[in-house]
Specification:
- The complex is a heterodimer.
- By secondary structure, chain A is mostly helical.
- Chain A has 9 helices and 6 strands.
- Chain B is mainly α.
- Chain B has a domain of 109 residues.
- Chain B contains 2 helices and no strands.
- The chains are: A mainly alpha, B mainly alpha.
């Protein structure tokens, strides 16, 4: 499979493709949002403003379906950023990808050796009886990288538990031993499983989509109808996964700040 | 699949920066505008409700005013009818009185005229009869005696009538 263009900056492994794609996604989302909200009008909104307001209302709907709206109002901005960023990220890998092939050892970027093309790596490949070359994937969906999706999931995890501790301290500690103390291990596993499934679900869906696109490209001319269908479906998947990630975020936050006072 | 902690950190930082930038420059103003629109719509709905109640109040007022005006009109017509009836009665009564008075006057006139005529006729007749008598009888009769004589005859004639 494709390797990542990673350079080693004094022990810090910088994945250039992730940095590039995160930057591109963020830039697209930011420019889109800024353009949409540039000429804001109360009485006569433009097309892009209408679209943005539709997204806002959509996210408001998500939040109010998972928690008390008074408490959830603060998370609209978070939900908007999540859904836009993930949706754009999911789509970025669909139209094309950029792969570079390296047969010579020690290919350099910014004066740094890319690890996958290092002499050590190549000699290891030769020792295993494989061809000494590397295919570096530069352009892909950032969400097709498990590290990125796990990064997002960890942000949500930290946010959830912070909110639980600050806004619902008693309920936060109590929920680990619900309904009985013996359930503590199960609750702990559940707590850890949540961010894991949260991030991995998104990664797996998008990564699988890109793998299948690569496979269909390998089929040449006869892969075109399949490619057309799968790319269309991937847009759908991208939207669904952005939606799923956002609503799960709201569900997790809702569970944490729910005080059970009303019951 | 490989997970690099460096990538996790980078993506977290990238997402947080994006979140902060979007919240400040894009979503903040957008939410403000949406809130403003919500308030505008609410305000306009309130205004519409207000003006509807006002319009309703005006209509009620107008209805009352109309009813009052109609009642006034009826009263005025009624009064006018009564006045006209009374006036007509008065006029008729006056006319009746007038006719009665005129009739009486006429009757009185007739009587006095008759008396006058009778008086004149009597004088005429007396002088004529004197002339006739003096001519026929050619008798020297005193004018005064003759007049007494004629009066006597005439009374006898009048008494017989």
């Amino acid at each position: 499979m494709h390797e990542s263009p990673i350079i080693n900056l004094g022990g810090f492994h910088l994945d250039l493709s992730v940095v590039l794609m995160l930057f591109v996604s963020s830039l697209i989302v930011f420019v889109l949002a800024i353009v949409a909200t540039r000429n804001l009008s109360v009485e006569n909104p433009g097309k892009l403003q209408n679209f943005m307001e539709w997204v806002v209302e959509f996210v408001q709907g998500l939040i109010s379906s998972t928690m008390d709206w008074k408490k959830g109002k603060a998370f609209v901005s978070l939900g908007m950023t999540l859904i836009l960023f993930i949706f754009v990220s999911n789509l970025l890998g669909l139209p094309f990808s950029v792969v570079t092939e390296h047969h010579h050892a020690d290919a350099k970027v910014f004066g740094q050796v890319i690890e996958a093309t290092s002499t050590a790596h190549f000699s290891q490949l030769e020792a295993e009886g494989k061809e000494a070359h590397a295919e570096l994937l530069w352009w892909k969906s950032p969400t097709a990288d498990a590290s990125v999706t796990m990064g997002l999931a960890i942000i949500i995890f930290i946010l959830c538990h912070y909110l639980g501790l600050v806004k619902n301290t008693k309920g936060y500690f109590k929920h680990y031993v619900q309904p009985y103390v013996i359930f503590l291990p199960i609750n702990l596993i559940e707590t850890l499983a949540k961010p894991l499934t949260h991030g991995m679900r998104l990664y797996a869906n998008i990564y699988a989509g890109e793998v299948l696109i690569t496979v269909l490209l390998g089929a040449g001319f006869w892969g075109i109808p399949g490619l057309v269908a799968w790319q269309g479906f991937s847009i759908f998947i991208g939207a669904i996964q952005a939606f799923v990630f956002t609503i799960l975020t709201m569900v997790y936050i809702g569970q944490m700040i729910e005080t059970h006072d009303e019951h | 699949m490989s997970i690099l902690w460096e990538n996790i950190v980078i993506s977290m930082v990238a997402f947080l920066i994006l979140f902060l930038l979007l919240s400040k420059y894009a979503f903040g103003p957008l939410f403000t505008v949406m809130e403003k629109r919500r308030e505008l719509v609410k305000q306009q709905l309130d205004e519409a409700a207000n003006s509807r109640t006002q319009a309703q109040a005006f209509v009620d007022e107008q209805k009352q005013a109309l009813a009052a005006a109609r009642k006034d009109a009826y009263d005025i017509i009624d009064q006018a009818k009564q006045t006209s009836v009374r006036q007509a009665d008065d006029i008729i009564a006056q006319a009746k009185n007038e006719t009665i008075r005129l009739k009486e006057e006429a009757a009185r006139d007739i009587v006095s005229e008759k008396n006058k005529a009778v008086e004149a006729l009597r004088n005429e007749v007396s002088s004529m009869s004197v002339a006739i008598a003096s001519k026929i009888l050619e008798k020297q009769v005193d004018e005064k005696d003759q007049s007494q004589l004629v009066d006597q005859y005439l009374k006898e004639v009048g008494g017989k009538q």
